[in-house]
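Pilot study result, target chain (155 residues):
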Amino acid sequence: MPNRDKGMNPRPLAAVLTVLCLGLSACADPRPPTGRWEGVYEDSGVIIAARLEIAANGKVRVSAPNAITSEGPLSPADRVNIVQQLESRLATSWPAVEPLPLEFDGHVFRKPGGVAPQLEWDAGKKRMTMIYYSGNRNSVRVALTSVGEFGASKS
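Predicted structure:
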């Protein structure tokens, strides 16, 4: 019969060390993605044009002018006109947009100490979503597309 007192089995120790390393890496401060994103959201009650920039230093700038359209159905031409007006307002006002203090947990951006998500990042799909809140409406998820330069796709 083998003597089991001769040494410690390294497998449990390796498993414990692996769990500890994973736990420590989960506590690390995740770095937010950097880049620029834009998107437009439309439904029967609102049209939103959104722009987001996350700098290498983690500063987040976001703006989302909107138009409430619940007074009645709009023609396709009216909708296009409203989107163009919103995008123009966004481009004009963008230089004055100040960075927001947002906390990032690796997936969700929130206001400091806040609960409600402001932005969601899917690293696997490289997809950014802005959550738009407006008074008495339900929140709206605005899918954003990564861009090199703002407005470049509109030219």
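One observation from the pilot: The radius of gyration is 23 Å. A full batch analysis is planned for the follow-on phase.
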